[in-house]
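Dear H.,

Thanks for agreeing to be a second pair of eyes. The structure we're designing against is below in token form, covering all 194 positions.
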């Protein structure tokens, strides 16, 4: 049983060029993404406290994402980069969430699968950043994050399989992978994770 699907289209060379051309701005966005990922994991706990099978893993994921935020913040401090006063909307995530079903159970499944797709895209992009960096410390840092994000992509599919039939999960996941590629292709390039 495969717990996640690979992204359908690869991120472009133009995207990595944009990121590497303004890496300080990328780090600000990356810090925001880690805070949002931690909050997202904890929001599942708050909204679905009856889903006791997945709560420990959600808490663990939330803590791990917060640790990633701390690590990115440390990098920013070393480079003299300040946190932004407010976190802007992420057009990528906003477009994905807009396509969610509205029923409680359907939305629960969709949100888990969106989390899987977003984490899988993050893993792919962290790999690209790791490979593009000349700085050995940054190369190593993003290589570790790449592995972590790939693991998170698996976790959310595994969580969905606790509550929904396998064929329903994978059929819906296929739809999210297709939709994610369409959304990604329609976004303007910016020095951001998404």
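And this is the sequence the design step returned. I haven't edited it by hand at all.
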């Amino acid at each position: 049983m495969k717990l996640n699907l690979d992204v359908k289209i690869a991120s472009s060379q133009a995207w990595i060029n944009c990121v590497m051309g303004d890496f300080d701005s990328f780090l600000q966005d990356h810090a925001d993404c880690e805070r949002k990922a931690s909050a997202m994991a904890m929001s599942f706990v708050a909204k679905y406290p009856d889903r006791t099978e997945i709560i420990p893993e959600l808490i663990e994921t939330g803590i791990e994402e917060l640790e990633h935020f701390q690590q990115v913040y440390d990098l920013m401090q070393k480079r003299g980069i300040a946190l932004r006063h407010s976190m802007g909307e992420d057009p990528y995530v906003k477009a994905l969430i807009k396509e969610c079903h509205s029923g409680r159970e359907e939305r629960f499944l969709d949100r888990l699968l969106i989390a899987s797709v977003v984490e899988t895209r993050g893993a792919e992009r962290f790999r690209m950043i790791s490979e593009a960096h000349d700085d050995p410390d940054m190369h190593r840092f993003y290589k570790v994050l790449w592995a972590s994000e790939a693991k998170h992509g698996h976790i959310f599919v595994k969580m969905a399989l606790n509550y929904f039939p396998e064929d329903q999960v994978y059929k819906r996941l296929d739809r999210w992978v297709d939709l994610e590629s369409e959304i990604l292709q329609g976004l303007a390039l910016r020095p951001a994770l998404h």
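Two observations from my side: Residues 84 and 132 are 25 Å apart (CA to CA). DSSP finds seven helices and no strands in the chain.

Warmly,
E.
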